[in-house]
Q: What sequence folds into this?
């Protein structure tokens, strides 16, 4: 089953893998507002509650929902064929896994490798944007890279840090990013351009009522000062510092990465400022922070090349607090 919108032969087509998720929904909305035809993948088309919120977006008559399994090449090829742009939103964050290889590494790493193979066979595809993660640059995130001096500001120019002791999600994002880098090295003149954006912790209220977003879960737990597991207990005990980025800024950066000329092969960190857990809790409850933020991950390259002005993390946290 495919849920189709109105077709227009003159509209550019963007395919968004994961376009019904937290970040993907804002990306889909941005492209619809910019008068693109938007093709969104759905892992399970029989669960409309996963993507039905997209039907309420402006210009949703140009929206198409297509069932796709990223590990099945024929369906993935069909999804990519005919697209001018494809945005690959990656894999949702998970801490608890029954089988890390099956549930995280295969869909994230192998899925990226197979997507690149499929994209290389898609006639007319002009650009691919990978929405990666800051974890691809530092699998220890939100903690620092060992040996870094206090106050260190990370940039895209640094060699990405990987630890085999990091959580599977972070390692999977690192290896997926490495797969993209290898592809670029082995294909110096690819048929399509590739740009990668790597957000820090994405903040703000969602477009849907879905409760399966990592960001929504984190903000809910931080707002209510809850610690359902050892990981969150550690965050509160250490008053961990988190680099935040507004989901609206991420969506704008993705659109710019897909449409601005001269950025092929680039990777961009997307981040606002960094706040400690205690102040994140205060901001989510519309209270004044006690501490001051600092910049941990530089957004200078994205600001320069993509023209995005990144807001302070207190802005999306404030929106979530009143949502």
A:
């Amino acid at each position: 089953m495919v849920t189709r919108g109105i077709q227009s032969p003159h509209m550019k087509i963007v395919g968004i893998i994961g376009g019904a998720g937290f970040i993907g929904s804002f990306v889909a909305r941005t492209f619809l507002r910019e008068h693109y035809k938007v093709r969104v993948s759905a892992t399970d088309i029989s669960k409309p509650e996963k993507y039905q919120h997209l039907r309420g977006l402006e210009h949703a008559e140009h929206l198409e929902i297509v069932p796709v399994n990223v590990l099945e090449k024929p369906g993935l090829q069909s999804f990519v064929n005919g697209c001018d742009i494809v945005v690959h939103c990656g894999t949702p964050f998970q801490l608890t896994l029954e089988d890390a290889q099956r549930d995280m590494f295969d869909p994230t790493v192998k899925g990226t490798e197979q997507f690149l193979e499929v994209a290389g066979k898609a006639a007319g595809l002009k650009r691919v944007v990978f929405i990666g993660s800051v974890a691809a640059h530092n699998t220890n995130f939100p903690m620092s890279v060992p040996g870094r001096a206090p106050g260190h500001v990370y940039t895209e120019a640094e060699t990405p840090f990987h630890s085999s002791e990091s959580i599977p999600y972070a390692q999977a994002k690192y290896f997926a990013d490495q797969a993209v880098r290898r592809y670029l090295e082995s294909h110096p003149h690819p048929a399509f351009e590739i740009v990668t954006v790597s957000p820090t912790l994405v903040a703000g209220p969602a477009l849907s009522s879905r409760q399966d977003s990592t960001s929504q879960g984190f903000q809910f737990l931080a707002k209510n000062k809850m610690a359902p597991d050892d990981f969150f207990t550690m965050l509160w005990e250490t008053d961990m510092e988190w680099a935040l980025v507004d989901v609206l800024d991420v969506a704008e950066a993705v659109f710019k990465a897909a449409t601005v000329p001269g950025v092929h092969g680039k990777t961009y960190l997307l981040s606002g400022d960094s706040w400690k857990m205690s102040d994140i809790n205060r901001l989510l409850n519309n209270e004044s922070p006690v501490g001051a933020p600092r910049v941990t991950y530089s957004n200078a390259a994205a600001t320069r090349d993509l023209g995005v002005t990144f807001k302070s993390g207190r802005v999306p946290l404030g929106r979530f607090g009143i949502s």
